[in-house]
Amino acid sequence: MAYVNSNEFAANTFDAIVIGSGISGGWAAKELCGKGLKTLVLERGKDVVHLKDYPTATKNPWDFPHRGQMPLVVQQENPIVERCYAFGEASEHFFVKDKEHPYVQDKPFDWIRGYQVGGKSLLWARQTQRWSKFDFEGPARDGFAVDWPIRYDDLAPWYTYVEQFAGISGNHDGLETLPDGDFLPPWEMNVVEKEIRKRIMAHYKDRDVVIGRCAHLTKPKEIHLQQGRGQCQARSLCERGCPFGGYFSSNSSTLPWAAKTGKLTLRPDSVVHSIIYDEKKQKAVGVRVIDAHTNKAIEYFARIIFVNAAALNSNLILLNSTSNRFPNGLGNDNGLLGKYVAFHNYRGSMSASFEGPMDSYYYGRRPTAVMMPNFRNVYKQETDFLRGYMTFYTATRPRWRHTADGQQIGAEYKDAIAEPGSWNIYMMMQGETIPKESNFVQLSKDAKDKWGIPQLRISVDYDDNDEKLLKDFLVQGTEMLDKAGCKNIVTRDSKQAPGLDIHEVGGIRMGHDPKTSLLNKWNQLHNCPNVFVTDGACMTSTSTQNPSLTFMALTARAANYAADALKKGEV
Ligand SMILES: Cc1cc2nc3c(=O)[nH]c(=O)nc-3n(C[C@H](O)[C@H](O)[C@H](O)COP(=O)(O)OP(=O)(O)OC[C@H]3O[C@@H](n4cnc5c(N)ncnc54)[C@H](O)[C@@H]3O)c2cc1C
């Protein structure tokens, strides 16, 4: 390289570079280091060291100046992130504030981000379901997007692999629509949830109800103890960072494991600008970084590069990686980079009451809900919309938090918190959206961030299919709660913008054919095979399951492939 002296070049050269240290980047780092590769993880945000950097983890409600609520002025300054349910006084330091990292909304899109070591793994709700064979077969069967280049059986061993290490609790339910995993003991449904389950399943032969599967250590195994993690205490204070390591995060699990190998270099405060493509070698050779504090540009070099900046930021990095060979972004010969973005439709929900056993209660704060895997269009197309939705519900007795009219002070409040109150039911949807060319991201031509990098322009919206699917959920949900004996059913369309689901995927999709996709079945760019994209950007479709377990499995699979291919000189 002409632009660095040889000492600098040697010091800045690694076997592998991973961009981003969140859920997928942490897995890439763990696998690549585990394979003996000298690995540099570049993270744009600040360092967050497990235990040390969880400032609110053990605080009581009364230790917070506003008892956990965000002051009005902060809410007004942050209309986007403020809409995220997990944003509060105890967790705000792990969220990106609106003004700090602006982007252009061609259409309303609530882009929720966590820029720090660990990324959104510190903030996520930890719901982790495997995809089923129906999900991978969906696009080919129903004729949307492109065919996935892999099937469930390709990923199944990698699901097992990541489940064993991360620690996933769940019940073995034996369902085709929601394959079982290698589970730790499940959480338990309460008495009313069980009763509703019984009544729904008695009435509908096509619907199954199971306890949620989630990345919490209900009963840690040796591998989890070796990570220094302990049993989940059901505190439900997870967004603060867990001092027990009771749930899976990069900070508590994959990153320290990678560090133990001695192969990991983690560089926080390193904003990746673009990937360097060498025209002569016809491969990527490194990454351009801007130091977040000094604004100094630095280059790092490696033989393979993993892009794990989270779906939309990975699109941004590739779009910004231009060269003579790739004037429209790295690997983007077909012009599809940034297109076919998908997300989850969370608009529908409903509440109800249940005249249930007033002498029954439940203890602890369970970190998961009750789930019903998708039952729509599973075996064949049977509605006037494509695909379907997963349904979640909970039954709670919430009155102990406040009086009937919401007061949290005074004698009436003290009396109220001694009584658990009547049973409330909450049900919500997680609908599949269809990836479309018209749902895309691109670079702004004029707006830049404070490091001179073009801002992302997001143009993503619902369509008629989403409206029909939402309507169906509201009708079916109401009917199911009614059949289960619930009363006072109130439905709601939040009309929330895409993005608030925080499950955005696509833009750098996998596929068989370089003409219609960006990545092959090993997550390599068809046109630049030493670059791997294994976060949500790679997803060809989105299914109805929470996405992160699939990102982990895809990443572990691709990283092992990449390390082996590197050793054989194939990349
Ligand atoms: C409140 C909440 C609840 C959620 N609940 C669930 C759930 O229950 N189940 C589920 O499956 N998913 C859930 N998610 C989504 C889940 O967090 C994401 O799917 C997951 O974190 C994605 O992993 P990732 O590695 O792609 O991205 P992230 O975890 O976001 O990590 C990306 C990292 O890349 C860094 N980065 C970005 N750009 C650059 C750059 N230019 N240079 C260097 N570094 C960069 C970021 O700072 C970040 O650290 C939830 C998210 C939130 C916020």
UniProtKB/TrEMBL annotation:
Glucose-methanol-choline oxidoreductase C-terminal domain location: 435-554
Stretches assigned to the Glucose-methanol-choline oxidoreductase N-terminal domain: 111-323
Cofactor(s) needed: FAD
InterPro entries linked to this entry: FAD/NAD-bd_sf, GMC_OxRdtase_N, GMC_OxRtase_C, P2Ox-like
Domain of life, per lineage: Bacteria
Record keywords, A-Z: FAD, Flavoprotein, Oxidoreductase
Similarity field: Belongs to the GMC oxidoreductase family.
This protein's name: GMC family oxidoreductase
Organism whose genome encodes this protein: Mucilaginibacter rigui
Taxonomic placement: Bacteria, Pseudomonadati, Bacteroidota, Sphingobacteriia, Sphingobacteriales
